[in-house]
Amino acid sequence: MTGPAGRVGGLRSIDKHSPVPFYRQLKEILRADILQRELRSGDRLPGDHELCEQYGVSRPVVRQALSELQYEGVLQRMKGRGTFVAPQLTSQSLVQSLTGLHDDVAALGRTLRSEVRTLKVTAADPDVAGRLEIPVGTAVVLTERLRFVDDEPWVYAISHVPAALAPDLVDQDLRDQSLYGLLERRYGLKLTRSRRAVEAYAATAALARDLGIPRNAPVLKLTNVSYGADNRPVETFVAYHRGDRSRFEVELERAATGRAVPPLVRVV
Question: What number of other Cβ atoms are within 10 A of residue 188's Cβ?
């Protein structure tokens, strides 16, 4: 059914005279359709054959458009089942932007809550002591949180803060607030930079149960150290992000001098 000029069934049609490739036009039409119809994660799109007929294009055009939308995280294609709207991914800056998951989720208009599994003072083991640049055995506040985005388990995070820097941190409610924000507001610990490493990791049985994924499913392991104004570490964490809710986006820029510019890396 054809509606106003240039639209098919309420959507823009393919302009056969445009220099823009058909697959790129179709890609943007489908993207707009998802937004206009307010489709949610898991909603099914028409099949390849139906899209070919609806827009008057060949199957390779449809496949190219769907493949690019899948690469961009807009769609999921499941063999034998069809094409579906992908889960909305959460972006977290890894380099050049010192933000926590709480701020990243809020910026997307989504909700974040934490199930606090552990909040206590303990002695720093060699690994934690090395990251925080303190003697082994120094008192640190240990926080373990299972974090939910829109009530879906997303990240399991283990944080350590030197107890001397945040004396009553164990008495604070960390279910619905940012640890970074709390450190700055309550303890005056201005975070100025951080160092983060990312590596692939296979979910253990316990981690898989917490995140709601199969055992040995891929997760992204982030190890972070945050520094204060005096260039001393004030917090460190290890966070395990669900692999099916994460991906990397890397922007690279070449300086005029030919020197490399540090990349912007995001996990979403």
Answer: 10
Alpha helices of 7-91 — where are they, by DSSP H? 22-36, 48-55, 59-71
| Cβ 35 vs Cβ 29: under 8 Å | no
Q: CB under 8 Å to 233, separation ≥6 — which residues? A: 131, 132, 133, 134, 225, 226, 227
Contact 119, 159 (CB under 8 A): no
Residues belonging to the chain? 268
What phi, psi does 140 have (nearest 5°)? -135, 155
> Mapping DSSP to helix (H, G, I), strand (E, B) and coil, where does residue 45 land?
coil
Least Cα distance to 174 among 129, 113, 131 occurs for 113
Question: Does the predicted model carry a pTM greater than 0.70?
Answer: no
Render pLDDT for 110-133 as a digit per residue (tens, 0 to 9): 677 889 999 999 999 999 999 999
What are phi and psi for residue 38, nearest 5 degrees? 55, 45
Residues 6+ apart with CB under 8 A from 31: 69, 74
Write out the two tokens for 233: 């570490």
Instruction: Let me know: does 73 contact 247? Beta carbons within 8 Å.
Output: yes
Two tokens, residue 49:
């054959």
